[in-house]
Amino acid sequence: MVALAGVTDMGWNGAWSGFSEMESHLMRMADEPSAVAWCVEMFGEDGSGFHSKSDFEFAEPDNALFAQKQAGAAIASTVEEAFRQGVAGYAQDAFVQGRPWSFDASTISLPAWILHGEVDRAVPQAHSYHTAELIPGSVLRLLPGHGHMTILAELPTAAATLCR
Prior knowledge:
Layout: E1 2-4, H1 21-27, H2 32-43, H3 50-53, H4 60-67, H5 69-82, H6 88-97, E2 113-117, H7 125-134, E3 139-143, H8 155-162
Parallel strand pairs: 1-2, 2-3
Helix pairs in contact: 2-6
Protein name: TAP-like protein
InterPro entries: AB_hydrolase_fold
């Protein structure tokens, strides 16, 4: 199992520290329909206002990745596809991430790597530390020079190591 810069159990007391104000507000909505309505109001039905109105910030390595012609185009295409059917999917994803986990992570018995970019601004590092504490025998690796998106480059190495 590999967790890449993942959100931890939001039932944890320290879970909200370090998240952007807007993301925290969305993740704490009372129910999914409220989260969708809020996203429609903030970003428009089609999500076209997301980039201009979101307080989401990426780290410099991520911004450098976005600036690369091929990678930037691929990421832009992915974001466009994510909002193709509106903001409901984004709202649902954020809402679900904001809930406490419905399972006991201490029962996970698979080998687990918890990877986090050292300069990630999207998900606080404390989340990976907490997840690593919850999963017995897991290995936490903070990756120097990586942000939230650039960490994806490490997935093949992690998968190859765990699949041996």
